[in-house]
Amino acid sequence: MTERTFRRTASARVASAGCTVLFVAGAISVGVSSGPTPGLLILSALSLLSLANALGAWADRYTLDDSGITYRNALLQALGAPPRRVAWEDVVQVREHRGRRFGRLDPTAGALFLVLRSGRRVVLDSLQDFDALRTVVQQRCGAGQ
Question: Per residue in 96-145, pLDDT tens?
């Protein structure tokens, strides 16, 4: 298997950027109209959190290769955080998550939960080309897990 890298979907990245714009605009509006109030502090904090989320969503990368999965975030790497690695042998179970749409169970999975030997879970969601990702994980971990 060749190495393949998956990033967050465009919709996830746009949604996180949209939230940032919304919270920053709200903080500016409240700041201009009311001055320093608790509402301004709350909106400012939400602006910073959504900015961190947006930057993280744009920098997330999941690389699948013969030995396992590597998660890295370019922003966190610049701050000194090492990439996280999970070997295929450490995955003991793969669970598909199916959300609900209009009160009914979605026919396709939207996320994969990898249960590791240590008990930890790795969540793979909101990634581009999710069907290809699911196929690789099922091939590596066994479709029946």
Answer: 777 777 777 766 767 888 889 998 988 888 888 888 888 888 888 875 44
pLDDT confidence of residue 144: 45
Sequence length of the chain is 145
Which two structure tokens, joined as six digits, stand for 61?
């990368």
Domains of the chain: 4-141 (2.30.29.30)
pLDDT for 34-79, tens place per residue? 888 888 999 999 999 999 988 888 888 899 998 899 998 888 888 8
Long-range (24+ apart) CB contacts under 8 A made by 19-24 are: 19/50, 19/53, 19/54, 20/47, 20/50, 20/51, 20/53, 20/54, 22/50, 23/47, 23/50, 24/51
